[in-house]
User: Fold this.
Amino acid sequence: MEIEEDKNSKNRYPVRFIFLNSFEELNEVIEHLKNFSDVVFLDSLLDNMQWLTKDSILLEIKNKLKEDSRLVIVPLSEFLRFTPTNDFYGLLKALSEIETNDYSRIYIPLVGLYKRFKKEFIDEFYRKDEWAPIWKLIGDIEPVTIYHATFNFDDTLQLPEFEIIKNTTDWFNLWRNPGTLKVLSFSKVIQVFHSKWLPDEIFNLKIIKNQKEFVETIFGEKFELPFYEKDSNYWNRLIKIFNKRGVVSTTSLIKDHFNIMDLNKLKAADFVEYFLSEPDKFYKWILKNYVSQFLEDKIYLKHCFTKMDGLENSELIELLWLEIFGLENIESFYLERKEILKRIPKIDESKIKGALERIKDLPLKDQTPYITGISTAEKEFVINNVMEMDLGSIRHHLKDCFPELYSYYGWDNLKPILNSDGWLLEYFKEYNMCKIRNDFSENLKSLIEEKNKDKNSFFDWFYTIEKPKIDPNGVNYWIDGLGAEWLPFVYYLLDEYLGENYLVEAQICRVDLPSITKCNKYPFEKFGDLDGYIHNNHYKHPKTLIEELEIIKQIIKKIKDEITINDHGVINIYSDHGFSFLTLSKFNDKILDFDDAQHEGRYLWMDNNEDLNDKYYITLKSECSDKNVLVALKHVSLSNVPSRETHGGATPEEVLVPYFRIIKAGEEVTYTLETAELDADISNPVVTFRLSPVPTKIPEALIENKTLVVENRGDGYYQVDLSQLGDLRPQLYKIKLKINKQTLDLRVNLKGGFRERELI
Assistant:
């Protein structure tokens, strides 16, 4: 063997380069050489895992040579592999110039590198012809691939096919695993020096630039999400999941973590709730990216997620509220956004007000897709916006953006249901309109002057109206202060909350005079929030109306919950009196001199039998006391002008209340359309259809998820105005009519012609 023959001969130059084809050969050579040589492990020179220098290596070899005449230097090839040309040549030259002129030997086995050694050193070395022998082992090369990840990753991976190196020590110990064919590197040194890597017979270097490339290269799997550097931590987490579980996708991650069977069944609002309730930002990131990458562009949530800089709940909530004001063609977003906003916290009202300012100059029909009616700012915006408009002609625009206000002014739909004098319905329709407008209209003034002209005219209508009958067998509730003005609103809420399971009947009834709780108490559960509110708050428009709507809504929700939980059969809702906003100083500045009048001047108990009657007040025998009582006949109070809504007087809104009888429905009714296809002219796109039998509620009409206002004409007849859709064209329109669980198809053939456009 060459080594055996050479070791016993003197030579001026002790260094012997031995070129090998694999780490297996390196280990075999070391096993042989260490029998007569001292092995110098270069990793022993590492200080805090810092990279070596050619000077430190040269110094170590020279010092060791003083102690032992035969040395094996391992693994110098793993240092040279990352050495630039100048240092590569310099170190080899310095080693080759060591002289001893005795039997000393410095064996330097090198794995690979022969081509570079020949090109960059020996061919240029000035003593190459007189220098010592160079040995090159003939054999098959086993190439090793180094996959170097340029990103930070500190966690442990279980990858049996790979030898993992994270630092310099790992690199200098790589030769100790001779069977290694794949190396995975996170070494900072290789990160610094890999640009100096030159072609090598043994090693093939592949750079992995980011975690996405890592997943696809190391695990051999595509992952659907795009890579952004700011998401590196989440991709590192994903690498750990791939390593532990194998192949995953955004879909499988979401389904497994949130225990979801079918993602396709989730609505945008569901994704929002999962996101907001999830404490782990990794799964927030997965959810956000799933929606951003895989849902359709017409999904509003997708627009909001793509706008997010981070993963904070507050950022998403604000975007969901405000992003729509910066988008175009938002019609497809309206319903989705509204359902989302119902299920998330509100943001600062001032921000909503600022956004609404951007649409204040649009026509009402173009404003409504931006408005959900969920926030107070939106409700104030709508009321302030419609105050000067004809509420009858624009009411249908309110159905989706402010349904409470839509139903509050919904007297027309109740005319066929209520068995009441026509003037009463007109009075309350006008009253509700005035409250919306914060106005006392001439029409309403004329009605009150006519109906409450004096004691006789008041008695003529008041005592023709029944008082509600107490049902001893039903479940009864008492809403303190609920006047007749609220009848359409409460009817709408009951119909919405109870649906097809209950039938709702409504009636306008009178109370005992004076119209105060003392005279109209009921012996069953009372809800006093509304009455407490009007007595403790000064009237402010539109704030007061908005808050009253909400108070009543919450009361009806509580009643609904009790009804459905206890499965009641017959339920009755009573009230003891209403109240009036028209007694405020804004509408009346006249002051009467009855200083002892109660309830801010609406009535006065009489200590004698004096009978005082005037156009402003009347005296009558109280129905709850042995005293006479002086009652304000109109909106002028008996003493100081109030700043709150009041009751105790004799105006219709004070003395008339709604009575609701709710009956659990029996067997399900099947409805039919009298005519399933109707014709209409585009100049007057109104159609009337009839349902049989007569429903107890108004059907819902939809065209492509847009809700149309349906007017109740009585006896099963209903009317729909297609102009609610906006720009019409001659064609066949398909309307879905929903009544209870049933859906009917109504086709409207709209014929050509001219039609004046409504200016709103």
